[in-house]
User: What shape does this take?
Amino acid sequence: MTKKKVKEILMLLDEHYGAEAVCYLDYETPWQLLFATILSAQCTDARVNIVTKDLFAKYPTLRLFATAELSDIEIIIKPTGFFRAKAKNLLTSAQMLIAEFGGEMPKEIEDLTRLAGVGRKTANVVRGHIFSEPCVVVDTHVKRVSNKLGLVNSQNPEKIEQDLMRTLPKQNWVRFNTQAIAHGRAICKAPTPRCVQCFLTAHCRTYVSKGQVNL
Assistant: This one.
């Protein structure tokens, strides 16, 4: 992967999806973004936004959330799937944020990943959008798109994160996350990408190697 090719890919992504980092989850406070991201596991952002509208209306502050009944949280978030585990993680994280961080969102990834249900992906969403920290978020879309473009050659999220940090300019890290997600949702879909609509076919290993064209 040459610097020239990386630059071409990033320019095309900027042209089609804009150069601003976009968050697809609705939130007003750092803890709301954290909780929405936890809920987004195995669930669409659109559904999460519907659920969190009711969830955050019922518990408008972190302290109220920390005193909620687990069963009440479960009922509200049930449409997001895996609701029992997610509800427990949300409640535990709320209590940890108050007890250990004075109700403030920690910035360091080591502190964030101590919270219940928070891995590197969730932590990096918070760091990127709340603290404007350059970081790479690896979800299924980022993994698929970055592999097809030859930016990485791995299925391991942590290795992909490190490889993208080495390959991409730091100023592109956060916006590449949202651009790759947008591209994965609109064009590079799994399992049937819309190759004839894609503006990145000249850089796509799957398209070039297999001559793949999908409507």
Remarks:
- The chain has two domains: 3-20+136-210, 30-130.
- The longest helix spans residues 83-101.
- The CA atoms of residues 141 and 185 lie 7 Å apart.
